[in-house]
Amino acid sequence: MSDTRPCVDWKLMDDFMTACFVKCGVPEDDARLCSDVLLESDRRGIESHGCNRFKPIYIDRIKSGILNPVTKIDILKDTPTTVVLDANDGMGMVASKKAMDMIIEKAKKYGMGMAAVTNSSHYGIAGYWTSLAEKEGMIGISGTNARPSIAPTFGVENMMGTNPFTFSMPTDEDFPFTLDCATSITQNGKIEYYARIGKDVPEGMVIGRDGKPMTDSKQILKDIRSKNAALAPLGGIGEELGGYKGYGYAAVVEILSSALTGGLFMKDLEGKNEDGSIRPYHLGHFFIVINPEFFMGLETFKKTAGDILRGLRNSKKAPGSDRIYTAGEKEWDVWQERKDKGVPVTEAVQKEIIGLRDEYGLNEFKFPFE
User: Fold this and answer.
1) How many whole angstroms separate alpha carbon 45 and alpha carbon 125?
2) Distance CA 326, CA 304 (A)
3) pTM (2 decimals)?
4) pLDDT of 2
5) Residue 59 contacts by C-beta under 8 Å, 6 or more apart in sequence?
6) Strand partners, 115
7) Spatial distance between the Cα atoms of 39 and 22, rounded to a whole number of angstroms
8) What is the average pLDDT score of the chain?
9) How far apart, in whole angstroms, are the C-alpha atoms of residue 253 and residue 266?
10) The sheet that has 74-78: what strands, in order across it?
11) 127, 187, 214, 306: which could form a disulfide with 206 (CB 3.0–4.6 Å)?
């Protein structure tokens, strides 16, 4: 089915979101970075984390006082191969860029680098950060905890965040291998997107307090916030399809995101004080960079990785299937299709854009959907 949504030129959307961030007090260079992270989601077709989240996750949180527009980064510990940063409840993207810049330089010199960040906020798609390493000819790995939404296997209480565990690796092809996915079977952002377009969530992804699966996306969002529903881990509800594996990987990300910094975890990431009032989320992230030159060399790595991926794609296909994909390929295809068209925007996002333009007096911005 063809996409009939209106598209906005990439530069126009970038300039607009940057201008809005600046109006909220974000320094211009930081604002441009934050906008680019959001747009990278849309470039890859990951609309759950693109301009769809611009207003509710970033602008609204800045305005409510739980997200600091100016990011003050403290270096808590720095060694030749590791660093620990405190983001002081500033923009998660800004702290993440600082972390990646530092450990990429460490990996160039020592072969590996790892960073952990505490007291941070939503950092966009994890694949943006791992791709920074890939563009330097290195392997990138990242994860982050988040407000609780996953129930452990055989449980119904939301205990851990969607906790992505993400990898990017260079290849000898036009696009890298990038596995960017949550350890839950779906993400809050995807459910928010379903709710915006009036679509149900497939059965088996969300469990209610009664232990039964839920599908109404709007009701799920309400019940997750009121702790009456939880996302299933990767593999789904129960053990039969391996839900315990997703549960285990989510726990790995939770531990690495908090224990390396002594930061908060699980229920303490609710973003609420004891009296129910909102407060910063205090999230944690981790980043790892590995330099193939310190092993058998970058070109050897890229060719072997490419050979593996081509072997997978050229293997025997299931009846009725005409193509096998490898991670990052679909996102590359989306970019080829969208790069000259622009970013598609839903009706709900269109309304948010017009509302912010009017609120901030950014009348120089005109959009094709008007």
Assistant:
1) 11
2) 14
3) 0.94
4) 66
5) 20, 21, 24, 356
6) 83, 287
7) 17
8) 96
9) 11
10) 74-78, 82-86, 112-120, 283-290, 139-144, 165-169, 177-179
11) 214
